[in-house]
Amino acid sequence: MGMKKTRALLFVLPNLFTVSSVLCGLFAILTATEPNDPERFYYAAVAILFGVLFDAADGRVARLTRTQSDFGLQLDSLADVITFGVAPAVLVYKWALAPYGWAGLLVSFVFATCGALRLARFNVLAMRQTAPPRHFVGMPIPLAAAVLVSLVMVHHGQGGVVLVDQPGIIAVVLLLSVLMVSNVRYRTFKKLKASRWTMPLLAGMAGLILVAVWQQVFTYLLVGALGGFAAFGLLEEGVRQARRLVRLARHAPGPDQGPRRPA
Questions:
Q1: What is the pTM of this model?
Q2: Contacts by 28-34, CB closer than 8 A, 24 or more apart
């Protein structure tokens, strides 16, 4: 009986990290919409960033304890829609897109919708696969959300609160939305095995985020790292497509050869 209870508790453990991510998303939404608080956008961004850590932890914990399940997969996706789809969309609207009225609302809606579509496609592909994939199809929604909130954090470090007339933010939001539903592949790093160093590493990352709350010293590094990873996926996809075109050119019949026939 004791073993069964222990096993049941192990199945609950990764789900606790998942619902903690939901809490971060809810806190971010409520904070971003709180009036008369000039710091609200920054704290909402930090909450979403903590949600990214909880999201990374739940999968690692599930693999470490061998408690992966279809229930956990569905719960994780529902949590991601809230924390990395709706919460960043609300935040970026209140932070920079509200002056554009309905156009700004539409851009925020596009981000949240593309995030939901990306998660739905991920679930379908995950149910068809028998082994962890080496690549995600489309930019992962936590990465897209992290890129957005890192921009909010950098802007806060410069002393700004609300952006007005910044079409570049619209371009960034739309680009991230397109990348989420694109066929560009991003590395999953799921082949890295969970070990006793997994949780200390995540705790260290959480500590760095806490430092950023008071000492905004690495926000620029954060933007650079996240932007670099996003660009790396595009670069890899470009190289992959270039190699594909080279292979097709090598096997294409010449102008005077006509179609090849089997021997």
A1: 0.77
A2: 28/83, 28/87, 28/88, 28/90, 28/91, 29/86, 29/87, 29/90, 29/91, 32/87, 32/90, 32/91, 32/94, 32/95, 33/90, 33/94
